Task: inverse folding
């Protein structure tokens, strides 16, 4: 990873290489390296237990990782805009209760229920966004308060938990598979949904909205002077985040069922995934698919710890070390990338007028 | 060098005669007035000894952690590992004390030393390895929690009666623990106002690059803040040990001290991005939480609904002075909005 | 800079020392906890052979009282004389609750409130003031202290959040001379008027592990799904079960899941991929459905499983016809503290340690419980024991948290 950076420092422009060279180059950025890390974890898991090398097992694994990957994608929009969303787990929990209590056994409510859930998701995102941009309350606090309020309200109204899981038709979205596929046997529906959302995200980030979002995260003042409606761009990011949490909730209620703990810890897991994906807290840098790869890496790590029979109590410690080390390495890579003036991933390569030369803790200037 | 790192000027900059800290204090007074009315409606006395003790005892633990959190946030970082540091120091100290008064001193030293080491690592990872405080301390919290879960199953050790007195002694209605916490607050205020490290902390939190170009070694104040934050979390852990009489490996997480301390700091008027804020506001923020919780408990508000009220109050209160900071922005960077025009008219 | 920082720390330490010293003089008036270090809390292992043996015995003991009202049954033993508290006036009860943060506690809390209505109507209890500690030891200690000084309480009901930490506060409540009823998790003092609990965690572990051992072969693998470490009523369940598994050559691997079905499903899926899983052991039943669905999704046969009397497990069990057992941590115990106050008001003697029956639901009894609890939500517990209370069944079906 470091050696490639060295050679690249000699040959300057990113476009002087072929596709292969450019791919190798992007692998040397934090956003690219996460793919290598995920691949390495997968190989390690397969070596530790060859059963995990079975294509059917891998595809099912990818399927069950879809909810956290989708949540990470949602969190990406918010983080790249320089904000946080701590309310994701609360949104998921609320959606699970709606799925259980409103839809329940009644298949005729599947569509209206889904629409209702998406509307609620968008509304929560709108509230988060407006409180952050219009009321100028830091998003960390806004979404923390949203987390408290939404969780409390849902628990109070539902008596702590949903009555029952929604009907099997509704759960198919999170649990169903396309059968009879060659090689991999099945393709889980969540994986298809994830693939569609990934494609949509890549497209969206290439659109003016995506460019503006990154510009806003990099320097809100500069973006404002350039004519961007900062408040609306950020609010849209929050709406996307809550919608992503909603989709994750729909998949989770299918995959796992109803329980007050469904989605617990998703906000921190999603933020960690995004940061592992080389996206800088404070905004302005990072590729959306790297966030998805970050989610895969985290889930693979869990599985690897299971395969290696690591003591249940020590798992947290291993995770903690790996998160810190990975982000520290990424931070160094960003620093080097900055110094050589090129190694940003092709998709986030904005002509950013960042006043700083390296990512420093606390560059979160957004909304304050 | 010390010229550019002036003491907290931003908040003393008067606007409409009120500082952010002033507003926080007004909110606190309002909370107390409202609280005493609501308590009276329930047929109770807000200012009775028992009630004041309940409120003040609730401020001590969160207060220690929030003071440390303020220092870290002023420097532009965060500390999510505080609950685990509190738990860890509690169980370690309880184990060393083992019920013997003679062991209290070594236990305190070990707890504070351990916390300082953790804070040092946090600070180094944040300032030298350039890992965002959020991730660095989230990871540190995970590491500690794994260590605790592997080595301490359930309650452990025990505190001698002499040590427990810290948790159960009162001077009038005021718990001794609250006085110790206020003492720490005073020291933190002195650190921020009177020492170079304090001034540099503001500078680094405000703009690390400018601070660096001005010759400040940016890592020193950050590491100092993290060390102090962990040490204060250790004080909280020790106080909890005194209250519980045994080391409880999950006590820090039980109180949700990580997020609540950050909320208290911001409620107290400190900017989450760093560089602006003070300890007085934080203490007021902690007190607002304590009054709010006390009143809701007296009114027997359903437990889940309390979180709804907490959430609403946090946003509403922070919005009050967050709005004010907008007006402070230099006009030339702002397209004049309708509101601004109206304000101009009004003046 | 370094010097300044050091100065700050030193000054802090000095101030701490000074203030600590000062408190010792001032606190003479405060009763505090008079019990010095007895070291009782120091065992960090979760297995005590004596308790294990005692609970195994209690599982076969005869219970006094009417089997139709198991919440009033008890094992014969020492009784507390309550004649000094005999009164005709309605009592004010003060309830320091650990939390209502999981479905088991929520169900119990609903039942308790319906029982309260009956006793309020009977004029036994004037009102019950409740403080909820939100799973926080420190908060619950403050709650109890508040009740002592401000609550105007005639009786205390305490459901401790943890055993050793709440002991001094419970002792302070006892020092008021009012009746103190402790239930669910215990404390390390016998000052309470009565301590109400089902047989206990060991009994759970014994019943479940015996069942799995009977239905599995030596060398079979059991995956243990545990909620979280460090809670005594949960740790003793696993402590007892692990001992029995080890003795019978059952291979085990245990996980902490936080009862999160997503985590449970991932763990089981990975375990199935690693190798065959023959049995699932749970220290609480919520999430059992997710564990079973992991087997369905992998196209495997169901394992032998022990869940809980939680409705979702009972329903899944019936639906699939798998081989299972529903251990019970008697939820009806939430009625007993208030009924104990009724007996105290009458001056009747009550058991000092009130051990309630704790019987697993077997396959033969399952359908009766399913029928009796028809229409209840998934997070409801079959042995909630509120069928004769007002509001049945709507209050539990709608799960109105008071």
Result:
């Amino acid at each position: 990873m470091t050696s490639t950076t060295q050679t690249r420092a000699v040959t300057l422009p990113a476009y002087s290489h072929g596709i292969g060279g450019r791919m190798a180059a992007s692998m040397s950025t934090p956003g690219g390296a996460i793919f290598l890390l995920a691949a390495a974890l997968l190989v390690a898991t397969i070596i530790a237990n060859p059963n995990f090398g079975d294509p059917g097992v891998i595809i099912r694994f990818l399927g069950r990782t879809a909810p956290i990957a989708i949540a990470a994608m949602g969190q990406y929009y918010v983080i790249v805009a320089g904000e946080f969303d701590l309310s994701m787990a609360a949104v998921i929990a609320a959606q699970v209760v709606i799925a259980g209590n409103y839809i329940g056994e009644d298949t005729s409510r599947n569509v209206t229920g889904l629409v209702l859930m998406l509307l609620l998701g968008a509304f929560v995102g709108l509230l988060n966004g407006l409180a952050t941009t219009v009321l100028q309350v830091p998003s960390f606090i806004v979404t923390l308060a949203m987390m408290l309020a939404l969780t409390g309200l849902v628990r109070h109204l539902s008596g702590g938990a949903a009555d029952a899981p929604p009907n099997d038709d509704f759960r198919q979205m999170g649990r169903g598979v396309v059968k009879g596929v060659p090689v991999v046997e099945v393709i889980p529906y969540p994986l298809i949904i994830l693939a569609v959302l990934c494609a949509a995200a890549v497209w969206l980030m290439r659109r003016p909205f995506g460019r503006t979002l990154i510009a806003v995260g990099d320097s809100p003042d500069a973006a404002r002077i350039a004519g961007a409606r900062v408040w609306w761009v950020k609010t849209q990011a929050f709406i996307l985040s809550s919608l992503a949490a909603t989709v994750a909730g729909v998949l989770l209620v299918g995959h796992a069922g109803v329980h007050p703990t469904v989605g617990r810890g998703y906000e921190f897991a999603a933020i960690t995934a995004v940061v592992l994906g080389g996206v800088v807290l404070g905004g302005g840098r990072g590729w959306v698919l790297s966030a998805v790869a970050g989610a895969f890496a985290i889930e693979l790590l869990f599985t690897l710890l299971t395969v290696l029979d690591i003591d249940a109590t020590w798992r947290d410690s291993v995770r903690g070390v790996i998160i810190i080390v990975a982000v520290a390495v990424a931070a160094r890579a960003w620093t080097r990338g900055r110094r050589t003036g090129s190694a940003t991933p092709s998709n986030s390569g904005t002509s950013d007028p960042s006043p700083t030369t390296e990512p420093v803790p606390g560059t979160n200037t957004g909304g304050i | 060098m010390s010229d550019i790192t002036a003491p907290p000027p931003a908040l003393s900059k008067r606007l409409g005669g009120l500082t952010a800290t002033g507003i926080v204090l007004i909110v606190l007074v309002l909370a107390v007035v409202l609280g005493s009315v609501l308590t009276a409606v329930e047929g109770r006395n807000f200012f009775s000894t028992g009630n004041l003790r309940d409120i003040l005892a609730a401020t001590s633990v969160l207060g220690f952690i929030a003071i440390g959190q303020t220092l870290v946030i002023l420097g532009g970082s965060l500390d999510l590992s505080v609950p685990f540091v509190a738990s860890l120091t509690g169980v370690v100290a309880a184990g060393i004390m083992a019920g013997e008064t003679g062991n209290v001193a070594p236990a305190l030293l070990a707890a504070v030393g351990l916390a300082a080491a953790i804070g040092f690592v946090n600070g180094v990872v944040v300032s030298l390895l350039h890992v965002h405080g959020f991730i660095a301390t989230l990871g540190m919290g995970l590491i500690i929690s794994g260590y605790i879960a592997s080595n301490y199953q359930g309650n452990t050790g025990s505190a001698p009666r002499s040590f427990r007195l810290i948790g159960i002694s009162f001077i009038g209605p005021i718990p001794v623990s609250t006085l110790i916490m206020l003492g720490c607050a005073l020291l933190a205020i002195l650190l921020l106002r009177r020492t170079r490290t304090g001034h540099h902390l503001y500078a680094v939190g405000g703009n690390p690059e400018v601070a660096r170009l001005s010759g400040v070694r940016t890592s020193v104040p950050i590491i100092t803040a993290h060390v102090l934050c962990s040490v204060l979390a250790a004080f909280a852990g020790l106080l909890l040990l005194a209250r519980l009489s045994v080391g409880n490996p999950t006590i820090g997480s039980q109180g949700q001290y990580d997020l609540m301390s950050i909320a208290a700091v911001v409620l107290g008027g400190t900017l989450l991005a760093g560089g602006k804020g003070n300890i007085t506001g934080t203490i007021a923020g902690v007190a607002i939480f304590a009054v709010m919780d006390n009143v809701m408990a007296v009114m027997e508000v359903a437990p889940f609904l309390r979180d709804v009220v907490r959430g609403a109050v946090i946003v509403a209160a922070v919005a009050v002075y967050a709005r004010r900071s907008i007006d402070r922005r230099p006009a030339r960077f702002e397209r004049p909005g309708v509101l601004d025009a109206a304000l101009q008219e009004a003046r | 800079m370094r010097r300044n920082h050091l100065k700050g720390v030193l000054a802090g330490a000095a101030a701490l020392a000074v203030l600590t010293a000062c408190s010792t003089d001032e606190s003479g008036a405060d009763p505090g906890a008079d019990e010095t270090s007895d070291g009782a809390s120091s065992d960090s292992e979760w297995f005590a052979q004596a308790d294990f043996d005692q609970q195994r015995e209690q599982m076969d003991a005869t219970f006094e009282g009417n089997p139709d009202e198991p919440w009033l049954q008890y094992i014969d033993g020492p009784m507390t004389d309550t004649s000094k508290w005999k009164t005709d006036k309605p009592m004010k009860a003060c309830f320091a609750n650990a939390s209502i943060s999981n479905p088991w506690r929520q169900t119990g809390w609903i039942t308790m409130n319906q029982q309260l209505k009956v006793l309020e109507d009977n004029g036994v209890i004037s009102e019950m003031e409740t403080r909820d500690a939100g799973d926080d030891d420190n908060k619950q200690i403050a709650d109890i202290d508040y009740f002592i000084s401000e609550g105007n309480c005639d009786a205390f009901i305490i459901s401790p959040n943890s055993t050793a930490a709440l002991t001094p506060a419970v002792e302070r409540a006892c020092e008021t001379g009012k009746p103190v009823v402790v239930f669910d998790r215990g404390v390390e003092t016998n000052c309470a008027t009565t301590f109400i609990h089902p047989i206990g965690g060991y009994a759970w572990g014994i019943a479940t592990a015996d069942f799995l051992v009977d239905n599995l072969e030596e060398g079979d693998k059991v995956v243990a799904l545990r909620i979280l470490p460090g809670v005594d009523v949960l740790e003793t369940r696993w402590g007892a079960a692990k001992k029995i598994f080890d003795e019978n050559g059952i291979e085990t691997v245990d996980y902490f899941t936080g009862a999160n079905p997503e985590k449970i499903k991932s763990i089981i899926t990975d375990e199935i991929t690693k190798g065959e899983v023959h049995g699932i052991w749970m220290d609480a039943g919520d999430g059992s459905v997710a564990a079973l669905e992991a087997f369905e999704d992998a196209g495997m046969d169901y394992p032998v499983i022990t869940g809980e009397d939680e409705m979702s497990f009972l329903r899944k069990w019936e639906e699939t016809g798998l081989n299972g057992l529903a251990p019970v941590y008697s939820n009806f115990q939430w009625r007993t503290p208030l009924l104990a106050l009724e007996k105290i008001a009458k001056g009747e003697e009550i058991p000092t340690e009130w051990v309630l029956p704790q019987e697993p639901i077997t396959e033969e009894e399952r359908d009766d419980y399913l029928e009796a609890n028809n229409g209840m939500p998934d997070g409801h517990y079959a042995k909630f024991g509120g069928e004769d209370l007002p509001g049945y069944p709507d209050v539990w079906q709608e799960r109105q948290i008071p």
In short: Chain B touches chain C through 72 residues (CB under 8 Å). Residues 1-16, 326-347 of chain B have pLDDT under 50 and may be disordered. Chain B has 16 helices and two strands. The beta strands of chain B are 170-171, 174-175.
